[in-house]
Specification:
By secondary structure, the protein is an alpha+beta fold. The chain has two domains: 184 residues, Diaminopimelate Epimerase, Chain A, domain 1 (Roll); 162 residues, Diaminopimelate Epimerase, Chain A, domain 1, CATH 3.10.310. It is globular.
């Protein structure tokens, strides 16, 4: 069987990894492009392993990023993120991946889309095509290339690397900047059996549904494997997420909401508490400001999606919202979020404008590294 060879890189960004390609190397027709990307990742796979592709059989390792020169004066590079289902035929282009965003600027520099200084730091202006938002990536460089080794330890990643600083500019609401799609800090979601769930619906970084951990008996210090072992509760979580999607106006029906698995995401929130991270490190109650467990593609995440961290930091600045209710005091600096792999810090600037709260910017540090650079081979049709 002949195979098509397409230039590509396999990169880690934050606590995710995915396939990076230039749009110019892919079919122009969206259907043909998506079919090729699905096959490259090994989807759909009824065995749930993506053995015959590059995907890693989890939401964190089954992702694609498409990159192109920006066609805007306020950006250098444009990119689009696709969440590839493990056993499914539709790539979800509805949102962004904050973790993989960390690898976009390094990839663009490697591909010659951006000229970096010989030493110091490259500031790359990114245009996030899925959401229509700007992001500034600050990448350390040496000899004109991204510096990928260093002593920055990102919780959820085994080895230290050089930090990439990401500033998400005006990340609230893809269309109008509104962080609260319904206009309310608190909404009531009604599940199929009539159960009512109190939630905060926030659009910042990505659309998010926030629920107090006590509403479903979620332990926000429990491990990912423990939480994912309760199949019935996972199904209940999905009902909440779908109801939130409809309430936010992201879908008109539950069926339509079920088709977009990537967004909105669902996060359970709890006050700060001591916990043991996945690598065995112990965190005291005072080491974090709030604890969370976030679901991604139907299961609990092993760390925290970058965009979820942004939304949590934004929602912390909304008095009366589910996240803000979990805070004992206002953080003196960046919000410290406890998650299964440790702690993530995000600095958010929330201001009031014409009677509503606006997220001006959110900044966090991730890291990125090229894992493979060459060609991805896809069986010819």
């Amino acid at each position: 069987m002949n195979q098509t060879r397409i230039p590509a890189a396999w990169m880690r960004g934050g606590t995710s990894k995915g396939l990076f390609l230039l749009t110019s190397d892919l079919p122009r027709d969206p259907a043909a492009r998506d079919a090729l990307l699905l096959r490259a990742m090994g989807s759909p796979d009824p065995y749930g392993k993506q053995i015959d592709g590059l995907g890693g059989a989890s939401s964190s390792t089954s992702k694609v990023i498409l990159v192109a020169p920006a066609e805007r004066d306020d950006a250098d590079v444009a990119y689009w993120f696709g969440q590839v289902p493990v056993n499914g035929t539709t790539i979800d282009w509805s949102g962004n991946c904050g973790n993989l965003t960390a690898a976009v600027a390094p990839f663009a520099i490697h591909r010659g889309l951006v000229k970096a200084p010989e030493r110091g730091e490259a500031s790359v202006r990114l245009w996030q095509g899925n959401l229509g938002k700007r992001i500034i990536a600050r990448v350390p460089v040496i000899d004109g290339h991204p510096l990928e080794h260093g002593d920055f330890q990102l919780d959820g990643v085994a080895f230290p690397n050089a930090p990439v600083t990401l500033t998400f500019v005006d990340p609230g609401g893809a269309d109008d900047g509104r962080m609260l799609p319904t206009g309310n800090v608190i909404d009531t979601l009604v599940l199929p059996d009539g159960t009512e769930v109190t939630a905060s619906l926030v659009n910042a970084g990505n659309p998010m549904v926030f629920v107090a951990a006590t509403a479903l008996g979620i332990d926000c210090t429990a491990s990912q494997s423990t939480l994912n072992s309760d199949v019935e509760r996972l199904a209940r979580c999905e009902q909440i997420r779908l109801a939130g999607a409809v309430a936010m106006g992201l879908a008109s029906t539950i069926e339509e909401a079920a088709a977009r698995q990537h967004t909105p995401k669902l996060a359970f929130m709890a006050p700060s508490a001591g916990f043991v991270a996945a690598d065995g490190r112990r965190f005291a109650e005072g080491d974090v400001d709030v604890c969370t467990r976030v679901l991604s593609m139907g299961v609990f995440h092993h760390a925290i999606p970058g965009t979820a961290a942004i939304a949590i930091s934004a929602a912390a600045g909304l008095p009366g919202a589910i996240v803000a209710r979990q805070l004992a005091t206002d953080p003196a600096g960046p919000l410290r979020i406890g998650h299964p792999s440790g702690r993530t810090e995000v600095a958010a600037s929330v201001v009031e404008e014409n009677g509503r709260r606006i997220l001006e910017s959110a900044t966090m540090r991730r890291s990125a590294r090229t894992l493979m650079d060459g060609w991805v081979c896809v069986p010819a049709a």
